[in-house]
């Protein structure tokens, strides 16, 4: 398990990348409004923002983090990933988890996209993945095996 400081440091790399992407697409108003804090319960960094920023932030996340998991495809995720999703509970329709496997240059990352129930606020958590995964070599379980998992 990564230490709290290494998680913060490595997660900050992605935050910096997101902020650079926002500046590139000329939206500094969004990054100046984002305040990041440490979420000790999940060992991730966390920010909250209003619904009017959600689409801009989601666009940047989708461009920079290749794998998206949601309520309809979460059971097709590799077991090693699904185990790491467990602390966040069952995903509702609008909630998403984005992942990027580790490479030689960067750690594996997890981003949790969490619209709040009232619909006016969103949160985004960024943390490290404990395991590496390869979707190209991952064969999802047949439906009858998923029934019992």
TrEMBL record:
Highest taxon above the source species: Bacteria
Q: What is this protein called?
A: Uncharacterized protein
